[in-house]
Amino acid sequence: MPAPALPAPALPEPALAEIRLEAVLHALADPVRLRIVRDLADGHSEMSCIAFNLPVTKSTSTHHFRVLREAGVIRQHRRGTARMSALRREDLAALFPGLLDSVLAAVGRQPVSHPPA
């Protein structure tokens, strides 16, 4: 009988005490990253990276996900061959009350921004 599969470890991310406001604000300052955060906040507990309809190349989207993860905005883990992303909403709310909700509300009031081709 094969051994039960262990859950895939999460990709490196800062602990709650290591999340810095300036890193979060930098991560949220890019239209593509804001789009990722908005999509995750729209009722998805987690999404596969390929489920996002981003106007950038795969390598550029990988960069954007890494910036968000390293800033502490999202967490990621592997599920088979997929990389799953989830918003760290509770962690961000504990550290910076109202920040994420304010940013998402502001994004909702403006048209979706697309980076130049």
UniProtKB/TrEMBL annotation:
<dbReference type="InterPro" id="IPR011991">
    <property type="entry name" value="ArsR-like_HTH"/>
</dbReference>
<protein>
    <submittedName>
        <fullName>Metalloregulator ArsR/SmtB family transcription factor</fullName>
    </submittedName>
</protein>
<keyword id="KW-0238">DNA-binding</keyword>
<dbReference type="InterPro" id="IPR051081">
    <property type="entry name" value="HTH_MetalResp_TranReg"/>
</dbReference>
<keyword id="KW-0804">Transcription</keyword>
<dbReference type="InterPro" id="IPR036390">
    <property type="entry name" value="WH_DNA-bd_sf"/>
</dbReference>
<dbReference type="InterPro" id="IPR036388">
    <property type="entry name" value="WH-like_DNA-bd_sf"/>
</dbReference>
<keyword id="KW-0805">Transcription regulation</keyword>
<dbReference type="Pfam" id="PF12840">
    <property type="entry name" value="HTH_20"/>
</dbReference>
<feature type="domain" description="HTH arsR-type">
    <location>
        <begin position="13"/>
        <end position="107"/>
    </location>
</feature>
<dbReference type="InterPro" id="IPR001845">
    <property type="entry name" value="HTH_ArsR_DNA-bd_dom"/>
</dbReference>
